[in-house]
């Protein structure tokens, strides 16, 4: 299973299970399932690919002891044991590793797995992360930094990320009154896209784009090819694996009246740089902004 399909599966499954709750505190999308009085955590397990990246930004990469499948940044995590994937969590292996902090993605971890973790690890901190805006990523970094006692490095990286967001907004968000019609293709068969509550929707808005199907009820929504043609996107994005061949765009490029066809605006984005809510998503955001600006 590719990373893009993995993340899609996580989103789809979590929608069915109703996991997309509101943030539990105002300043961050992190919530503490259990908050025991203890020294700063030294043995961290993460339960989604992007979480090792967030921990790294918070200054805790050297405390990671286990990660999920497809975790590949920072480089050091590739050597760590894997204890979770989109379908399951290896609780026995987790117990053997003796973690003192577990971080999971509330928007992508099935409720049954969350409950199993809480029941198994009753004396340690279990932390959930659910960023829905780019600024939430910065807040999450700072909150994890406080948990780890690494506030200084966490604040530095969070502030750098916030400055990059501000720079993008200043450069692109209000550059033109006319918004570019954008279709973000999550999957081709079935044809799926994202609604306005997804993090990528925040990026499209910052870049001065008008996200088609933003009002869909489901975070990851199935749409028809006919509906997309009628909406007439000027540019279409999709995420791909770095090991994957380029997307077959023929289902769209074969339609001459489509604005995206006329503008030759079918764009592959590295999935690691757009599908993972960590600081690396800024690379994908900059690419989306520049491509939207190019065809404006």
Automatic annotation (TrEMBL):
GO terms, biological process: cellular response to iron ion
Domain of life of the organism encoding this protein: Bacteria
Gene3D superfamilies tied to this protein: Nitrogenase molybdenum iron protein domain
Full protein name: Iron complex transport system substrate-binding protein
InterPro entries documented for this protein: ABC_Transporter_SBP, ABC_transptr_periplasmic_BD, Vit_B12_bind_prot
Pfam families: Peripla_BP_2 (PF01497)
Fe/B12 periplasmic-binding domain span: 43-296
């Amino acid at each position: 299973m590719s990373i893009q399909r993995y993340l899609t599966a996580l989103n789809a499954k979590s929608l069915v299970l109703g996991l997309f709750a509101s943030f539990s505190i105002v300043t961050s999308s992190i919530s503490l399932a259990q908050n025991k009085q203890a020294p700063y955590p030294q043995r961290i397990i993460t339960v989604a690919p992007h979480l090792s990246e967030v921990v790294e930004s918070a200054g805790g990469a050297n405390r990671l002891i286990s990660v999920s499948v497809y975790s590949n940044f920072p480089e050091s995590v590739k050597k760590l044991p894997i204890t979770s994937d989109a379908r399951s969590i290896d609780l026995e292996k987790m117990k053997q590793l003796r973690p003192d902090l577990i971080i999971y993605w509330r928007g992508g971890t099935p409720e049954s797995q969350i409950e199993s973790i809480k029941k198994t690890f009753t004396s340690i901190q279990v932390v959930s992360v659910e960023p829905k805006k780019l600024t939430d990523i910065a807040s999450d970094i700072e909150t994890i930094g406080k948990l780890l006692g690494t506030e200084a490095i966490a604040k530095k990286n969070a502030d750098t990320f916030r400055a990059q967001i501000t720079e993008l907004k200043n450069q692109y968000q209000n550059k033109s009154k006319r918004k570019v019609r954008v279709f973000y293709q999550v999957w081709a068969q079935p044809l799926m896209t994202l609604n306005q509550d997804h993090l990528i929707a925040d990026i499209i808005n910052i870049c001065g784009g008008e996200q088609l199907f933003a009002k869909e009820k489901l975070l990851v929504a199935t749409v028809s090819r006919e509906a997309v043609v009628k909406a007439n996107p000027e540019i279409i994005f999709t995420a791909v694996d770095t090991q994957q061949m380029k997307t077959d765009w023929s289902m769209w490029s074969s339609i001459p009246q489509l604005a995206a066809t006329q503008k030759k605006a079918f764009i592959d984005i590295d999935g690691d740089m757009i599908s993972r809510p960590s600081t690396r998503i800024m690379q994908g955001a900059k690419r989306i902004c520049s491509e939207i600006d190019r065809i404006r």
